[in-house]
Specification:
Rossmann fold; 2 domains; five-stranded parallel sheet; alpha/beta; elongated; single chain; 13 helices; about 350 residues
């Protein structure tokens, strides 16, 4: 029996980033794989010219948009396996409705693999910001003194606290899993989370403002869509407890930056932002001047574990597709509008 024909259009650098060598070799062994040997990313026109006959297309970061021309030529395509996260820059709603749904073409995303890394970073940032370890380190190294009277060293850290998770997204759910073994309470704001799911996860559903009122630590995992633009602003920040921690590893567009700056200038909250709008922040952004704000350069998704899980899950998606089995990570087209 002939092996399914797979076109792998990613570059070698992408392969090294997301595939464990054994998983990449397994893909080459189990399928009839044509590898992009150009040393550069392909354009949409090039994909359209070569897609005929292929049953699977493996894309990733930097892949070109999947255009009408590609699908007009894709006479055998069964799956687009995206070895990366967000698919909105790759495949439009119009293309999904016009080609993918009528032809029963699966769109796979490895976003849950990236969620593993982001969740780990989120918990680390909650600990770092609340404990103020970087401030202590800087003070000791620059002053030579052991402990600053201006840096808190005792507070309600994660254990025994209430943690507010904004959005039970892929990342939000991984954060909840990591925190579920700790003695703490988790409250969640997510209008799409059912009561049954919340009960299964061991969390309490609350409204957004109640979350800001009750939580000792808050972490944001919203998608960047029209309805979340500047969703969190002055009204919510004014409700925060003194000394609370706020972490954003989702998208900067979800936060009213001006409102957060004013809150940080006037109240004792502790903030860690892995994402901002724009990125990087302007040279004279007030965020850069605030001692209670830590900025990371959008790296929460990095890490060998999650990156190699991208390749592993992409391989498994191909296996399941050609075995006629359900595909973990297949995009639910009915939820396209609320995807990150």
């Amino acid at each position: 029996m002939a092996k399914p024909k797979v076109w792998y259009i990613q570059t070698e650098s992408h392969t090294e980033r997301v595939f464990d060598p054994a998983d990449y070799q397994a893909m080459l062994d189990e399928f009839d794989v044509t590898v992009n040997g150009t040393g550069a990313g392909l354009k949409s026109e090039e994909v359209a010219e070569g897609i005929a006959g292929f049953e699977a297309l493996v894309t990733g970061w930097g892949a070109p948009a999947m255009t009408d021309a590609i699908f007009e030529s894709a006479d055998a395509l069964k799956i687009v396996a995206h070895s990366a996260g967000s698919i909105k820059a790759l495949v439009s709603r119009e293309v999904i409705d016009k080609y993918m749904i009528p032809r029963d073409i699966v769109l796979f995303s490895a976003n849950v693999a990236i969620a593993y890394n982001v969740a780990e970073s989120t918990v680390g940032m909650l600990l770092m910001a609340s404990h103020q370890w970087p401030a202590m380190n800087t003070y000791f190294k620059t002053s030579g003194n052991w402990k600053s009277p201006d840096i808190r060293w005792n507070a309600r850290f994660l254990k025994g606290s209430t943690v507010g998770v904004i959005a039970a997204s892929k990342v939000g759910r991984e954060v909840i899993k990591l925190l579920s073994v700790w003695p703490l309470d988790i409250i969640v704001y997510d209008p799409f989370l059912s009561d049954e799911e919340a009960a299964q996860m061991g969390v309490a559903k609350v409204e957004l403002n109640e979350l800001f009122q009750r939580a000792d630590h808050i972490t944001v995992h919203l998608p960047s869509i029209a309805s979340t633009d500047n969703m969190i602003g002055k009204e919510q920040f004014d409700l925060m407890k003194p000394g609370a921690t706020f972490v954003n590893t989702s998208r900067g567009s979800c936060i009213d930056h001006d409102a957060l700056i004013e809150k940080c200038k006037n109240d004792d909250i502790y903030v860690c932002l892995d994402v901002t709008t724009p990125e990087p922040l302007p040279k004279y952004s007030e965020f850069r001047m605030l001692d209670n704000v830590y900025i990371a350069p959008h790296v929460s998704g990095a890490g060998f574990y999650g990156y190699h899980m991208i390749g592993k899950q992409t391989l498994e998606a191909l296996r399941c597709c050609f075995a006629g089995q359900p595909i973990v990570g297949a995009v639910d087209y009915e939820r396209y509008e609320i995807l990150a």
